[in-house]
UniProtKB/TrEMBL annotation:
Residues 1-19 form the signal peptide. Gene3D superfamilies: alpha/beta hydrolase. It comes from Pseudomonas kilonensis. This is Esterase/lipase superfamily enzyme. Coiled coil: none annotated. The keyword Signal applies. InterPro entries: AB_hydrolase_fold (IPR029058), DUF900_hydrolase (IPR010297). It comes from the Bacteria. Keywords: Signal.
Length: 384
C-alpha cells in the first residue's frame, strides 16, 4: 500500500523512539482433542509459508489452564505430549531464524500500511495446537497414509530456551536439513532467562531419567524409520548420559533404530566426556561433535564454569579427538545472524548441508565433502 514520503518518515521516527517498548507475545494453552490421527491441515497461504508439524514431549509442569511452565514436573507421570504447527516462510535464506518483525514494521502494521505477511517470519500457528495422549503420540511413527515417510529428527534444546522457541527451532532445522524429516522436540524446563544459567543447569541434569525413558519408547515405536538425535548446547547434559546408559543396556535395539547422534556446541565438560562417555559414543560409531573456536558462549563457559574446565563444544587450542567419533570444527562455516557463534548448527547453511549429507546418505565425515585436517590437529575442519 502506498503512502506519502513525509508520512513514512514520521512513522519511522516515531517507531524508533518506541523501539524498546515492544510488548511480549503470549501463547494460548494447547487445546485438547480426541480426534484420530491424522490431524486436519490448517489454513495458510501456500505461496508464503510451508507448514511444519512438530511433535513434542516435555517434562515441564502444566499450569491449571494447560499451559507449559518453566518448571520440572515431579508427578508420577512427568511427560506430556502434543503437537504444534510452525509456519516456515518459503522466501528466506537457508539457516535464517527470523521469528519477529522489526519495531518499524510493527508500527507500520499498527497503522494498516503493511500486512503481516509482507514480512514473513517463522511463527506458531496457535489455533492448531494439540495435546496428545501417549498412545496417540507414538502412533505417529508407524507407517500410515498421511504421515511422513522420512526419518525422525529428535531435537533437544539448550540453555535459555522457552518452549515455543524450542518448537520453532526444531521446525526450522528439520525443514532446512530435509523437509521429509519428521521433527520431534524433547523440551526440558529451561526457564528462558539468560541470567538463570545455574537454574537451567540443574533442571537439565534432573531431566536425564525422563529423557532416557522417552527415548527408549520412541525408538521402540518407530517402524522402518531411524531416529536421529540433535542436541544443542546444554541439551547435551540431558542426552549424553542417557544415550550412554541406553546403548549399554539395549545395544541391538539402538544399533537398528538409532541413526546419527549430533552434539552441536555441547556445553559439557570435555574431561568428563573423555573419562566417562567417549568409549560408549565411539562404540556406537555414528556420533558427531560440532565444535568452534569462536563460540563466545562456550568460551565464557569454559573460563568460568566449575573450576575453569574446557567445554566439549569449544575447540580453542585443544579441541577433541577420539577414534570412532567424528569431531568437526565448524569455525569457518559462518552463520546467519549468529553473533555469539553458538548456533551455527541451525544458522549456517554449510553446517545444515553437512547434516543433510550425513543423515540422507548415512556417511561419516571422512566420506563427506568439504573437510580437511590441519596438523597438528587430528579432527576435521569444515570448509566454507
Amino acid at each position: 500500500m502506498k503512502f506519502s514520503l513525509l508520512g513514512g518518515i514520521w512513522l519511522l521516527s516515531f517507531s524508533v523512539f518506541f523501539a524498546g517498548c515492544a510488548s511480549s507475545v503470549s501463547y494460548p494453552a494447547p487445546t485438547y482433542s480426541s480426534e484420530q490421527l491424522p490431524y486436519p491441515t490448517p489454513e495458510y497461504r501456500t505461496e508464503v509459508f510451508a507448514p511444519v508439524k512438530v511433535s513434542y514431549a516435555t517434562n515441564r509442569r502444566k499450569a491449571p489452564d494447560g499451559s507449559l511452565l518453566p518448571e520440572l514436573n515431579v508427578s508420577g507421570d512427568p511427560l506430556s505430549y502434543g503437537q504444534e504447527t510452525v509456519l516456515i516462510p518459503f522466501k528466506r535464506d537457508l539457516g535464517s531464524f527470523k521469528d519477529s518483525h522489526s519495531p518499524a514494521f510493527k508500527m507500520l502494521m499498527e497503522f494498516g500500511l503493511v500486512d503481516e505477511q509482507d514480512d514473513p517470519i517463522i511463527t506458531l500457528l496457535n489455533d492448531s495446537s494439540l495435546t496428545l495422549t501417549e498412545a496417540d503420540f507414538f502412533k505417529q511413527f508407524k507407517p500410515a497414509k498421511g504421515f511422513k515417510s522420512g526419518d525422525v529428527l529428535l531435537f533437544v534444546h539448550g540453555f535459555n530456551v522457552k518452549f515455543e522457541d524450542a518448537v520453532k527451532r526444531a521446525a526450522q532445522v528439520s525443514y532446512d536439513i530435509n523437509p521429509d524429516l519428521q521433527p520431534v522436540v524433547f523440551s526440558w524446563p529451561s526457564i528462558g532467562d539468560p541470567l538463570k544459567y545455574n537454574r537451567d543447569f540443574g533442571r537439565a541434569l534432573d531431566s536425564v531419567d525422563d529423557f532416557e525413558k522417552f527415548m527408549l519408547k520412541l525408538v521402540a515405536s518407530t517402524q522402518g524409520k531411524r531416529v536421529h538425535v540433535l542436541a544443542h548446547s546444554m541439551g547435551s547434559k540431558v542426552v549424553i548420559p542417557a544415550l550412554a546408559r541406553l546403548y549399554s543396556t539395549h545395544p541391538k535395539l539402538f544399533d537398528k533404530k538409532l541413526g546419527n547422534i549430533i552434539l552441536a556446541a555441547p556445553d559439557f565438560p570435555r574431561e568428563t566426556f573423555i573419562l566417562k562417555y567417549k568409549a560408549a559414543f565411539s562404540k556406537f560409531g555414528r556420533a558427531t561433535i560440532y565444535m568452534s573456536s569462536e563460540d563466545k558462549a562456550l568460551k565464557a563457559s569454559s573460563s568460568t564454569y566449575l573450576a575453569d574446565r574446557g567445554m566439549l563444544g569449544f575447540s580453542g587450542p585443544e579441541g577433541f579427538f577420539f577414534p570412532g567419533i567424528d569431531s568437526v570444527d565448524i569455525t569457518r562455516a559462518g552463520g546467519v545472524d549468529d553473533l555469539l557463534g553458538h548456533s551455527n548448527y541451525g544458522s549456517s547453511a554449510r553446517v545444515l548441508v553437512d547434516m543433510h549429507d550425513m543423515i540422507g546418505s548415512n556417511l561419516r565425515a571422512d566420506k563427506r565433502k568439504g573437510f580437511i585436517i590441519v596438523p597438528p590437529y587430528k579432527y576435521f575442519f569444515l570448509q566454507p
